[in-house]
Amino acid sequence: MTIPPVDLTIQHDEIAGEVAQGWAEVLAATAFVGGPQVAEFERAYAEFSGVAHCVGVANGTDALELALRAVGAGPGDECVLPANTFIATAEAVARCGATPVFVDCDPESFLLDTKAALAAITERTRAVLPVHLYGQLAPVEALRGVCDELGVAVLEDAAQSQGARRHGARSGSLGHLAGTSFYPGKNLGAYGDAGAVTTDDPWLAERVRLLSQHGSMQKYVHSALGFNSRLDTMQAVVLLAKLRRLDAWNAARVAAAGYYGELLAGMDGVAAPTTLAGNDHVWHLYVVRVAERDRVLEHLRAAGIGAAIHYPTPIHLTAPFATAEHGPGSFPNAELVAGQILSLPIYPGITRSQQERVVQVLAEALA
Ligand SMILES: Cc1ncc(COP(=O)(O)O)c(C=O)c1O
Fold this sequence. Notes:
three-stranded antiparallel β-sheet; alpha/beta; binds pyridoxal-5'-phosphate; seven-stranded mixed β-sheet
């Protein structure tokens, strides 16, 4: 039995008719950029996230960069982010000319160490970026008081957490603003690249929109140097169809994570993931920790199990971000977990027998 890391065909089968009809409407109208479906999705996603504004953009990396530019981040500024994230979080900081300042993570939840983040703030800090890694929300409330007082923006990296809640509040509503990705494999995934910025602040929303469309709110009137980074109309059709089902699909992920928890309970040599108090996790990834991870991964793959590593190298040790100031040993938790983490297959529609097989092969590898 071969088990993929993610199976998107199950979701597609459910929405295929709706997408075909929606795409036919776009084709008939030939409104490929900025069609009414984009505005409809932006309204729907803002409402879903519990914020006043959503601006659709081309991808999650652009969402973060545009959000950073909207808060004025640029050369001479510092932005604080966890060392254990996808490289895009750091790319967004560097691409707007600011300096990424990495901090360590909590080794149990894998989330940003908020004490370390607060300690890293200087008079040059423009933003702190808590990353909602693997589908649960970072404790953003621990950052807000100090950041609000100092005028430091809290920008959530919400790429992996659509629909997750913390103390009842949705992903994308906890910071001053948030950037999210609708890359196909995300909990809310498009059929290509797409992303969005969410915020309650009308000025920031307008600034992101302006920057995302050539620095212009009125055709051929350009008030700032901008980008071409818009949400595609075809993608908005897909995202609208999927958003209607997102809570149900996230519930299926929660059930699958619960079943993995049952299957792994009491098994030696594997640490199941933990959920912070107050969090409704949406299990974008199900990440366990094991010793001899590379050998275990090889065993799983040889048996046809689509296990993966998110992510093998902490960002401060990758070529674009390695500096003499933060060499190996700088962020011990991030470095430790990078050598132990293993993502097991999880997606809405994974069957109990598939999960049993995953855990059976994992047990063989650990025996
Ligand atoms: C944590 C995180 N941040 C940012 C991104 C960037 O999103 P995108 O691939 O849509 O540019 C991703 C996903 O790829 C991600 O997982």
